[in-house]
Amino acid sequence: MITFFLALLSLILGYVFYGKFVERVFGPLNRRTPALKVNDGVDYIPMPWWKVFMVQFLNIAGTGPIFGAIMGAKFGTSAYLWIVLGCIFAGATHDYLSGMISLRNKGISYPDIIGKYLGNRTKKAMLLFTILLLIMVGAVFVYSPAIILSGLIGDFMMWAVIIFMYYFIATMMPIDKIIGKIYPVFAFALLFMAVAMLVALVIKMPDLPEIWEGLENKNPKMGPVVPILFITIACGAISGFHATQSPLMSRCVKHEKLGLPVFYGAMITEGIVALIWATVASYFFYGGGAAELGADISSSAPQIVNIVSESWLGVLGSVLALLGVVAAPISTGDTAMRSARLIIADFIHLDQKRIRNRLAISVPLFLVTILVLWFNIADEDGFNVIWNYFGWANQTLSVFTLWAITVYLVKERKPFVITLIPALFMTGVCSTFLLISPIAFGLSETISYGIGGCILIVASSWFFSWYRKNK
């Protein structure tokens, strides 16, 4: 477990040193934030920094750093490298700068950030892309908790209706009434569960593969490490979905200096959670954990969460596991729908202080989400395809965010290389995944890498051509 402790220390040091560096690059000011300037009592509401942090953490986390890390651990110790390097240099930087750009610009939504720095045509394309992604998130995170709850009591449709009703109420209500009160509790449960797993790992100290023993793909059935690993582990490394959530909290932060713990800190915390679960999964897959727990090594990520939680933490573990696989996705789906409402409202310039204006957007938005869920209940394979596309779409969103931030840094005459390198890397990852994945073109590795490399060269050429004209 030496690799795990080194990775954990790296994440902490990454926040202390690289996080401070990124903060200096942006340059927070002592000025009134949108929460204080607007304060509309609905979406712009100043809240204590710790509460904003907890809500931001749960908004961006959900079950992503758990399930993604467990599946990513099948690739072996390379998962540690991606979580640490991706989180510090890509994910947390992406979250901090996108959140602070929104905060500096009156709390603007994600498509407006894209439009401001990548142009109006890109903004319109990303508006549609983002809304579709958020609708998929809303539908997906009704489906999975409803399935789990129906296995305990009631049926699927009953729970789907209850969850949708909660979504609607939470989306309509002021952010401090439901989200601001309930989410910190759920976030605490998610963190407590991770800490409990960490304590159990320290007590057991299992003999796990170390990074210096090799980075070979431990499970070739998952596909090639590049690019599959970087799509599988999104939350915990870098996730474009986070850029749709940060503007929610940029409207609640009281001071720009709080951006470091809220945006960069929440992402580092998510990385730590992912690191813990990747280690749990490594023990399950390669450290004899499956045999010790009497489980099948081919168990799915949710099954592994339940098996390990119940075995290591008893009744408390069962409760925390239920919170993790039910409450966390519900909270993610809820804020996804809220983000969609705000993005549409900003685009059509419809004030959201009046409840009828919120209804005008929320009702059709929820009807579309219900239709998406309904059609995919009837076709299970179709639902799985949408879920797989969601993974790619999520990382593609991060590509556009990173390019927009890079343009911002160039225009502000700041060291843009801190986002240029992640932007180029994720451009290569997402384009190659689309070429190589069976759910898309399904081309051979040689052809996919070749075309992906060409796309990377074109992207680099475009940027440096633009930079020479605008520097």
Write the layout of secondary structure elements.
Blueprint: H1 2-26, H2 34-37, H3 49-61, H4 64-72, H5 78-104, H6 110-118, H7 120-150, H8 156-172, H9 179-204, H10 225-232, H11 242-250, H12 259-286, H13 289-292, H14 301-348, H15 355-378, H16 380-411, H17 417-436, H18 445-470
Write a structural description.
With 471 residues, the protein is mostly helical. The chain has one domain: Amino acid/polyamine transporter I. The chain has helices at residues 2-26, 34-37, 49-61, 64-72, 78-104, 110-118, 120-150, 156-172, 179-204, 225-232, 242-250, 259-286, 289-292, 301-348, 355-378, 380-411, 417-436, 445-470. Helix 5 crosses helix 17.
The fold-level CATH name is: Amino acid/polyamine transporter I
Helical amount: over 70%
Provide the domain count: 1
Mean pLDDT rating? 89
CATH class: Mainly Alpha
The SSE order reads HHHHHHHHHHHHHHHHHH
Percent strand equals: under 5%
* Span of the ends, CA to CA: 47 Å
Which secondary-structure class do the elements indicate?
A: mainly alpha
* Shape field: globular
Question: Helix tally?
Answer: 18
Strand tally is 0
Radius of gyration from CA coordinates: 21 Å
- Poorly predicted regions are none
CATH A-level architecture: Up-down Bundle
The largest pleated sheet is described as: none
Name the CATH homologous superfamily.
Amino acid/polyamine transporter I
